[in-house]
Amino acid sequence: MHVLGLMSGTSADGIDAVLVDFQGDPSKPKWKILNTDSFEYPTSTREKIIRVGQGLEINSKDWFELAEEITELYACAARSCDPDSIAEVVGCHGQTLFHRSVQKSKRGGSLQILLGPLLANILDQTVIYDFRSKDIASGGHGAPLVALVDEALVGRLYGWRGVLNLGGIANLTIIPPKTGIDKTSECLGWDCGPANSLIDLAIKESSNSLLMFDKNGSLASRGKPKLDIIEKWLRDPFFHLEPPRSTGREQFGYQYLQERKKELGDISKEDLLSTLTTFTASIISQDLDNLFKYKNIRLLELLVAGGGTRNLFLMKQLQKQCCGIHVRQINDIGIPLQYREALVFAALSWWNILGKKVNPKNITGANKSILYGLRVDPSY
Fold first, then answer.
1. Which of the four pLDDT bands, split at 50, 70 and 90, describes residue 203?
2. DSSP per-residue codes, 64-91
């Protein structure tokens, strides 16, 4: 089946599109990428998304028009990647504008903005969207959903395998080995904490919006990280919550950055970026140390995807801190690092059409198997 996957993440830099042919067993599919494309958000749209995500109050008319604008941009991305409309179904995640993790006295919540029926009618194709609400209604976090599909797409090794996504937020998938005493174990997954979110906000602020990210990590590489401060930050209770756990810009956004900058005092832009980038790597390293400490799981390799892979300083820090683990980019195994999440939502959409449910208990914490996504067909 030909499926088009569309994804825009918490970095809100644009829409990734991937056209895939899926065949065979959905748990161990044969798949082939037919085309990929990346559609950049207009600067005004990106600004609006980030500001609304950070608490900007807008009226109902502005809400609707933002949803309409994002939907139309998704349609443009779809047509660019699949100009002949050969996809039998389009899987569209929508743009996350709010995420609330599960708390003791409050259920989780997650808002992805998209007008699914409008997208189906513009494209004249079946659309699968709204992937998170059933999970949240079943007691789950609704995230990280990419971990539900990683085993099917990536496969198992002769040891434990990790998949790390470095988007605005970092998340991990832990895949069991295919042989040995752990082969009956199930996949694990959770959100680690900030990846690019703090780094991007810091460089935008320090450059008066002239720069949107630290290209290749070049500025961070010229600074010196404040390791004593990082050690203090790593004691934040969130980083020691037992998975399932999830987070977003609501927790690790502008306000969090201002508090961390106060603790750092008057330091150079390079030292600030070096500290924030090293902090991201340290969060992941600490998670993997805790995985061994509490579950006796030590990874053989860590496959890294997402925009953060282009930050050479961040990748160097990961390789340095994740001792004994083979850290490499996910494109080494044939998955384009920028399109891994779009590929995941294409797979979830294929599963929806097939009626394949997923048990997310060890990843999102939801209490039952779920058919992810809602289907909408174009109206005639």
1. very high
2. HHHHHHHHHHHHHHHHHH-TT---SEEE
